[in-house]
Design goal:
Layout (H helix, E strand, L loop, with lengths): L8 H9 L13 E3 L6 H14 L6 E3 L4 H10 L5 E5 H9 L5 H7 L2 E17 L12 E3 L6 H12 L6 E3 L3 H10 L4 E6 L4 H4 L8 E3 L5 H4 L3 E5 L11 E13 L7 H19 L1 H7 L20 H6 L21 H14 L2
Parallel strand pairs: 1-2, 1-3, 5-6, 5-7
Antiparallel strand pairs: 3-10, 4-7, 4-8, 4-10, 9-10
Helix pairs in contact: 1-3, 1-5
Length: 348
Amino acid sequence: MGKTRWLGPALGAMLVLAMGPAAAQEEFGKAVMTGGATGTYIQIGRDLAGVMAECGQTLDVVESAGSLENFMAVRTRGNTQFGIVQNDVLEYLKTYSADDPAVARAIQGVRIAFPLYDEEVHLVARSDIDSVADLAGKRVAIGVENSGTFLTASLVLDLTGTQPAERRKIAPADALPALKSGEIDALFYVAGAPTALFAEGDIDGEQFHLVPITDKTLQTVYDAVTIPANTYPFQPEEVSGIAVKALLMTFEYNPQGNSYQRQSCKAVSDLSHLILTRLPQLQEGGHPKWKNVDLQDIPAGWDIGGCVNAGLQPDYQLECTRPAASAAPEESEANRAYRQYICSTLGC
């Protein structure tokens, strides 16, 4: 397998330029890179922005193509301290850093903020396709370039030595109608089950099914999971598969460095403190996937950021100023007269 062939020319260029997060900023800001407008990542990002807002802080939630773009944005884009990334993005880059100088430069300074939740690898295909190996010679949708689905699907195919006739770089939402019409034979989608695309996708269980992923090579890289029976209307039996973990990623900012580094480190510490202390709140009122978050499940080979650990200290002082409630505008004389008339006629 070519070390960076499947990453695409756009990402390859970013890797070459990935020397560190931008430091010169006209105005300091904070942001988290997420995913598409209807995905889980963006909802998790909005939950994080919500707890920051409760302390009078602004965290911009930025849509993206997914994990690969998020990884590189945290590495290279100013005012972007966080990104939600699949664990196999990190595993791939870490694995090949030794003999790829561009990748080695790209991962310098990358740190984990928090482990989040597992995302199941869905492979939906024609009913005569029973395994990943059966995708050989078939037309397979692998997600848009730089998305997490694209990365995982590429790894799954390459690690198993499976050679489809075509790898279609289209989003899962576009791939499903293509599968139904016979334009493709199978599609990958990495998302926390149940995903609305399949739950509401009106999929004919006689023609299509959720393919088990039981390859032993893949199970040494990914966690083995079971998608319970009837998770989707077309899926009457449980299906064995694999999952990747979503991670909140950050950068190892230097609190003794320039103004941007100091402010970014504080932003990381503040959000880390809020996640730790308000996890029950997030689990109660945030996206359902918060209930599956295990903050101790750190992926092997990666370190937690120093600014993260600073925010977890029992004596950490978080400047939490709740935004002042907006005062109600003073009512005009005309509106008061109107209300009095309504009350006198209809009652209040």
